[in-house]
Amino acid sequence: MPRVPFHYIDLRTFCYETEDDKRVEAALRTLLPDEFEVERVENTGHHGDRIVVFSARVERAAEVRDVLSALSAIEDFEGLVDELDERVTENCELFMRLDKQAAFGGDVRLGPGITFRAKVEAYPAKKEAAVENAREALRQAAEMGDEDESDADD
After folding, report:
1. Pfam families annotated for this entry (predicted)?
2. Residue 10 falls within a domain, yes or no?
3. Which of 30, 95, 114, 123 has the most crowded Cβ, counting Cβ within 10 A?
4. Residues 35, 56: Cα–Cα separation, whole Å
5. Does the residue 49 lie in any domain?
6. Which residues neighbour 65 within 8 Å (Cβ) at sequence distance 6 or greater?
7. Residue 60, helix vs strand vs coil
8. What is the CATH number of the domain that holds 105?
9. In which domain, by residue range, is 96 found?
10. Would you tell me how many other CB atoms lie within 10 Å of the CB of residue 73?
């Protein structure tokens, strides 16, 4: 993938008092490059319960490629690509939610728990251009993931 049309990708998840911090952070790390820094902020909920917010902002092109490659493992990846018009806002931001429980098991799926927000490059900064750029980048990431899998099989 020669060019990555994303300014950044933000990933965020919450760890509630009933959850294990290390497991929730591990779920988030499923989507991130190795050794990537994850920010941790402790908060207090409405009823006094502890809530830890784990977040990461990915800005470097190689690291953005890693995150997009992880997304290409989504079972209905083509369905995700087909929904981009609904997932990209007028501000050229791509949103989706990923399953935190599945991510802890190393599986990337759409579902509740992890918020994915990415700023898509588009010139001019119009939704249609952002959708097309995101579509092309996701397809290229999937092709690269397919190549990596075939290399591992050799």
Report:
1. RNA_binding
2. yes
3. 114
4. 12
5. yes
6. 1, 4, 141, 144
7. coil
8. 3.30.1440.10
9. 6-153
10. 17
pLDDT score recorded for residue 144: 77
In the chain, the largest separation of any two C-alpha atoms, in whole Å, equals 55
Rounded to the nearest integer, the mean pLDDT of the chain is 91
Buried b (16+ CB within 10 A) or exposed e, 108-117: bbbeebbbbe
Q: Identify whether 1 is part of a domain.
A: no
pLDDT of 151 higher than 70: no
pLDDT value at position 142? 85
* 65 close to 24: Cβ distance less than 8 angstroms: no
Please name the helix (run of DSSP H) or strand (run of DSSP E) that holds residue 81, with its range, or none.
helix 77-82
- Residue range 11-34, pLDDT digits in tens: 999 999 999 999 999 999 999 999
The structural domain count of the chain equals: 1
Q: How do residues 64-89 score in pLDDT, each as one tens digit?
A: 999 999 999 999 999 999 999 999 99
Amino acid at 139: R
DSSP conformational letter for 88: B
How far apart (Å, rounded) are the C-alpha atoms in residues 83 and 43?
34
